[in-house]
Amino acid sequence: MPPTDLHHQAAPRWKRWLRRIGVAAVGVTAGYALASAAIAIPLAALLVSPRPKRRRHLESLRLRDYLWARRIPYRETQFVSHDGTKLTGWFLERGWWRPTVVALHGVTGNRTSLIRFGVMLYAAGFNVFLFDGRAHGHSGGRFVTYGYHEVRDVSAALDHISKKFRLRDQRFGLVGISMGAAIALQTAARDPRIAAVWAESPFSSLQKISREYIAELLPVPSTALAPTTWLAELIANYRGNFSVSDVNPLAVAGKIACPVQLVHGLADDFVRPHHSQAIFDALVNAKEKDLWLIERAAHARCYRAAIEEHHARLPAFFHRHLGR
Question: In the predicted model, is pLDDT for residue 290 greater than 70?
Answer without folding.
Answer: yes
